[in-house]
């Protein structure tokens, strides 16, 4: 016997081993490379992002500070012109001055307002504890008395920090009455900055820190503030030194830069704003992404080993499943073949039945058509016979002969109808001649005269002055007109004052419109289908409009129906117009 050969399509065992080892080596190389590249890219990206956010915050802080100073700078100029305050200084009556300043401070948003008299005594203030205090030696009082403009002052507090004031003297004519002092609340920005940034400070033109998130920095220069900051301060050890950064733990610095120092100018008296932002969160964010990547590669490696261990079991399961699927497919194909044979036999029987039904339907339709089309001439003949009998009884034979002549014409028409019905099973075949639509309408109305006289229907005719000619079969056109008039009469049976309007118009086509004032059409989609009728049994078989539509289509026209705006049904017969009426007459 020949040695056992491996199944075709599956790799040999030795092939599996070296390919798996190669795949694992490639996976490890890709993992190490991905982690290294991610570390470099994410470090650079988050470092730049931290720098951009620090720069954006600095611009925002500077803009808010400048806006607050500019908004309060105009207040002393406005209050120095207040007539109430000027009058209080002239009359030394300050009973309402404090309340007026309180009303102003709510609108302005300043920290406090003070009104000083000419001797520097506080005569009105939003803080009532300051009433009566002396400010004669304060810089803002002295400078305001000497200047004709608004004076800005930075005054140290006894408790630490600074007060920021705007002051302007109040004059009445050439006399100096006092000084209005507006204190600006800039410490609210320190509280806001401290909750977002690591460290922010504002220095004046001399380099003195006047605002800072660290209260111990106020009044110092930047160098003095950094030298006295302890390692447990706002930006920790990174702010103490940047020269010997390698002596500190590696996680405290990135790329040789301990902190980000950003500085910008504030367009106000040479002020500058400086912010310090650490890189503390950069390493944490990068390490978080690296941890996710390492975990992903670990899961991928575990899935590879799991796939290798399950490979043999899956191969056996695949063979068993394919065998079961083949058996099920074979059974399903046998059932489908048997079902298809039964369907073919049933289809053959159905085709024979359908052919027989079509023949019977054609015979029934022809017989119904004959009954429908001959009903109108028979009704007219009955009326003429009754009239002739009455005339003979009255010894008026000549007039009776006229009725018999009309009956003879109707018999000829019935013969023509039976010949015409043969054309319903095929299209064309008859010779077309010019037809005057006005004469055809008159003939149709003459045939309908007994019914119109009996029903007492008001007929309104609107005809053009010139004759309207079409190319067609006059007998078939009259047949369509009679059907339309008969439908209009049937539709107005339940109307108290029945009216039928007939309009003949000539344009691009010859259009005959028959409008009634009945109840309208309920189902416009089925109105031209054979055997569709709304009449009572015995009154009609539903073939009149179907036959009329077929006649108009054979003549190259169109028969349509719609409901009128004021109620009732509107039927329009459109036929190709014959423009040369003279040639048509010839």
UniProtKB/TrEMBL annotation:
Please name the PROSITE patterns in this protein's record. HIS_KIN
- Membrane association type: Multi-pass membrane protein
The name this protein carries in UniProt is: histidine kinase
List residues traversing the bilayer. 20-38, 289-308
- Organism annotation: Sedimentitalea xiamensis
Q: Which reaction does it catalyse?
A: ATP + protein L-histidine = ADP + protein N-phospho-L-histidine
Q: Note the coiled coil stretches, chain numbering.
A: 316-353
Short name of one Pfam family: HisKA
rRNA processing listed as a keyword: no
Q: Where in the cell is it found?
A: Cell membrane
**EC number(s)?**
2.7.13.3
Q: Which GO terms describe its molecular function?
A: ATP binding
Q: Which UniProt keywords apply?
A: ATP-binding, Cell membrane, Coiled coil, Kinase, Membrane, Nucleotide-binding, Phosphoprotein, Transferase, Transmembrane, Transmembrane helix, Two-component regulatory system
Domain (Histidine kinase) ranges: 369-579
């Amino acid at each position: 016997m020949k040695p056992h050969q491996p199944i075709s399509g599956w790799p040999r065992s030795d092939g599996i081993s070296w390919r798996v080892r190669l795949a694992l080596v490639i996976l490890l190389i890709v993992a190490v490379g991905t982690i290294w590249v991610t570390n470099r890219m994410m470090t650079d990206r988050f470092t730049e992002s931290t720098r951009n956010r620090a720069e954006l915050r600095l611009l925002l802080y500077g803009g808010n500070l400048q806006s607050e100073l500019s908004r309060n700078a105009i207040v002393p100029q406005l209050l120095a012109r207040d007539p109430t305050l000027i009058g209080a200084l002239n009359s030394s009556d300050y009973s309402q001055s404090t309340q007026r300043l309180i009303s102003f401070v709510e609108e302005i948003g300043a920290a406090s307002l003070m009104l000083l008299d000419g001797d520097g005594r506080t005569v009105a203030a939003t803080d009532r504890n300051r009433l009566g205090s002396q400010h004669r030696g304060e810089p803002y009082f002295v400078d305001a008395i000497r200047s004709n403009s608004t004076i800005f002052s930075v005054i140290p507090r006894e408790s630490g920090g600074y007060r920021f004031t705007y002051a302007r003297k109040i004059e009445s004519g050439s006399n100096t009455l006092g000084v209005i002092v507006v204190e600006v609340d800039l410490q609210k920005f320190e509280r806001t900055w401290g909750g977002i940034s690591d460290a922010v400070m504002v220095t004046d033109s001399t380099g003195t820190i006047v605002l800072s998130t660290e209260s111990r920095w106020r009044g110092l220069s930047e160098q003095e503030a950094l030298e006295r900051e302890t390692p447990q301060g706002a930006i920790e050890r990174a702010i103490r030194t940047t020269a010997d950064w390698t002596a500190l733990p590696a996680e405290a610095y990135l790329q040789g830069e301990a902190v980000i120092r950003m500085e910008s100018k504030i367009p106000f008296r040479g002020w500058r704003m400086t912010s310090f932002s650490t890189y503390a969160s950069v390493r944490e964010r990068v390490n978080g992404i690296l941890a996710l990547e390492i975990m992903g590669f670990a899961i991928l490696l575990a899935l590879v080993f799991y796939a290798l261990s399950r490979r043999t079991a899956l191969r056996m399961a695949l063979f068993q499943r394919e065998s079961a699927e083949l058996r099920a497919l074979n059974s399903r194909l046998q059932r489908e073949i048997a079902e298809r044979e039964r369907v073919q036999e049933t289809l053959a029987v159905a085709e024979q039945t359908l052919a027989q039904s079509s023949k019977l339907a054609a015979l029934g339709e022809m017989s119904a058509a004959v009954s429908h089309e001959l009903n109108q001439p028979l009704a007219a003949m009955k009326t003429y016979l009754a009239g002739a009998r009455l005339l003979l009884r009255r010894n008026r034979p000549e007039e009776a002969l006229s009725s018999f002549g009309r009956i003879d014409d109707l018999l000829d028409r019935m013969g023509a109808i039976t010949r015409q019905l043969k054309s319903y099973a095929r299209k064309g075949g008859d010779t077309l001649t010019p037809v005057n639509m006005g004469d055809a309408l008159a003939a149709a109305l003459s045939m309908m005269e007994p019914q119109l006289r009996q029903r007492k229907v008001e007929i309104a005719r609107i005809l053009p002055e010139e004759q309207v000619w079409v190319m067609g079969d006059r007998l078939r056109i009259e047949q369509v007109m009679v059907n339309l008039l008969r439908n209009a009469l049937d539709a107005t049976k339940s109307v108290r004052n029945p009216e039928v309007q007939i309009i003949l118009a000539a344009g691009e086509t010859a259009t005959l419109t028959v409008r009634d004032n009945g109840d309208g059409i309920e189902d416009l989609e089925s109105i031209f289908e054979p055997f569709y009728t709304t009449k009572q049994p015995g009154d009609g078989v539903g073939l009149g409009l179907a036959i009329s539509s077929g006649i108009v289509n054979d003549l190259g026209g169109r028969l349509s129906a719609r409901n009128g705006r004021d109620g009732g049904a509107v039927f329009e017969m459109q036929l190709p117009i014959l423009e040369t009426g003279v040639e048509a007459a010839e």
